[in-house]
Design brief:
This protein has 360 residues and is of the alpha+beta class. The chain is built from 11 helices and 16 strands. The strands form 3 sheets. It has a 6-stranded mixed barrel. Strands 10-9-15-14 form a 4-stranded antiparallel beta sheet. The relative contact order is 0.17.
Length: 360
């Protein structure tokens, strides 16, 4: 039966074929430009199938080896690059979910049956690279992100990613509260925040609603709950979505009162730590111990077909990529129960905002 998948899922197969066809992967900078003098030779790629694992070793040919070490097949490297280019054309010209029969036939020949890695894991592909600077040949897991399909989320929304703020500064009447909560514009979250502020209301971060997510944030940075609360609020007050731009604005306001005399980038550094953790291992409602699943970093499939490597060893480049290419997104207010002004059991007024981060 033909396999149906979307552009992002087929991009994982494209990256797999492209890397084997080119036998190396170039690093990228924060603006998704190829760094011509920084690349990693690929020695082998490992693929987990349903009940076994196959090794695709790069010699003169691609040598496919079974889990017990038996050589199954040798294929010319050029074949992989040829089918990668064919698949790229199919991805570009297709819409929604689609099949690629010619690619599936080649996949079957090379013992490649699954299109997408398990959604429960951060890593999509496992590669042995040769680091020319250290001489090491580590086995690394990478997450694959693609510009060929719809953008993916980095940090997923849920009720577990709600932040609660105390609203003070104005004695809101029931009529005013009802009027604010009835705002139903397409930008209703920002508009409700703006109306609260217009009436004289002020927002003070109270708590992250989910204790597991809160502990994960504190593990990354003890002050991260407060910083991300300020980021979300700033985004809605100033109508800025770019995470870099919002963080820059927070840095100028300096709500945590850091000593900035030496021009140290406190907010940028801590937000980058959050992004790296979200990219490589941390999810909201699962206790996290600081270990990275995708311990290699990211592979990015660009819209021109280039595959760039953001290697965790080159952490500054990886951080810059995440920082410059992510934005805050407004999730469903009804589904995640936020963006309403309400009176708590203590009689004080509260308002929830939600955190979701998506690639641009």
């Amino acid at each position: 039966m033909a396999k149906t998948a979307n552009k992002g899922e087929w991009s994982e197969i494209y990256a797999f074929l492209k890397l084997l066809g080119e036998k190396k992967v170039f690093a990228g900078d924060g603006e998704l430009n190829k760094i011509e003098n920084l690349f990693y030779p690929i020695l082998k790629i490992l693929r987990d199938e349903e009940k076994t694992c196959y090794e695709y070793a790069l010699e003169d040919d691609v040598v496919i080896v079974s889990e017990n070490g038996a050589e199954l097949l040798r294929k010319n490297v050029a074949d992989f690059l040829n089918y990668a280019n064919i698949l790229l054309d199919v991805i570009r010209t297709s819409k929604g979910a689609f099949t690629a029969p010619l690619i599936e036939q080649f996949m079957s020949e090379i013992h490649c049956h699954k299109i997408k890695a398990s959604p429960r894991k951060k890593k999509d592909i496992t590669i042995v690279i040769h680091d020319l600077r250290t001489g090491m040949t580590p086995l690394l897991g990478f997450s694959i992100k693609s510009q060929l399909g719809s953008t993916s989320t980095l940090f997923n929304a849920g009720k577990t990613t709600n932040f609660t703020y105390l609203v003070a500064g104005h004695d809101f009447t029931d009529l005013e509260i009802d009027a604010i909560n009835s705002i139903g514009t397409q930008t209703k979250v920002r508009d409700r925040v703006a109306e609260i502020k217009r009436l004289g209301g002020t927002f003070k971060f109270k708590v992250m609603d989910d204790p597991v997510c809160r502990n994960n944030f504190i593990l990354i940075e003890s002050c991260l709950p407060r910083i991300m609360a300020e980021v979300i609020l700033e985004s809605n007050l100033r109508e800025i979505r770019s995470l870099k731009e919002v963080t820059d604005a927070i840095s100028v306001r300096n709500p945590l009162g850091y000593d900035t005399i030496y021009n140290q980038k406190f907010y940028e550094h801590k937000v980058k730590n959050f992004l790296v953790a979200s990219a490589l291992g941390m999810v909201p409602h699962t206790p996290w111990n600081g270990e990275y699943q995708a311990n290699g970093g990211y592979l990015v499939v660009k819209d021109d077909g280039d595959v760039l490597c953001y290697h965790f060893y080159d952490r500054n480049l990886f951080e810059d990529y995440l920082y410059c290419n992510t934005k805050l997104e407004t999730a469903s207010t009804g589904r995640y129960e936020y963006a309403k002004l309400y009176r708590g059991e203590d009689g004080q007024l509260y308002f929830k905002l939600n955190l979701q981060v998506r690639f641009k």
